[in-house]
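Service request form, structural biology core

Requester: graduate student, group of Dr. S.
Request type: structure prediction, single chain
Budget code: on file
Notes: please return the result as structure tokens.

Sequence provided:
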Amino acid sequence: MPEPPDFAPNAAVYDDAYYAAMYRPHWFLRNARKYRERDAALLRALRPHPAMRLLEVGSARGDTAFFFAPLTARVVGIDAAPVAVEAARAAAVARGLENVTFAVADARDLSAFAHASFDAVLLADFVEHVTDDVLVPCLAEARRLLVPGGALALYTPNRDHWAERVKAGIPGLQQEDHIAVRRAAEVVRLVAAAGFSVEDLFFSASPYPFLGAVDRLFAGAAVCRFRTVLRALRPV
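Core staff response, request fulfilled:
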């Protein structure tokens, strides 16, 4: 597939340094609890099984695809950044994984894949990186690629959470790669508008020391819902 140079207005952000720094441990921002709870949320949303054919959109350097590889029959990861796909391919070879492949592709046009060729499509930490002109056609493509009854799993920051409100309101705290952090209700609306039926919608608490405990204590409040996690089905 040709390189899609206009996949985001900030496409230049996604260079080698960006992917080299991804998931770098940090006691507050990226601690072990964050990734344990992310994995648990993704397992609940995706419900992998040994026969599953999984497409991950926005696969970056492949970490999530590698997590699901032992639990599924086949994982295909696509990303619009060629440097990400190169890194993912090298990591797959190093790990000896034969059921994982990666390709450069624009999420708006996945015509290289046949109709109903996947049992599940995963958008994990993807939605916040793209504006509606990418997300809306991506969701339409996901519906086309899924078998009847197939699942769309989605994991993304929630604009209503206090941390996102703080970042949005204080100059210098904004993440240059997060150009479209959406409220949970907007994510649900877009998924439903694409023709999916939402089966499971839940939220994770922030992993931050002390502050995460507040999120868990007041889990019903929108400001304490750190990540929006959603499972939706293509109608049979």
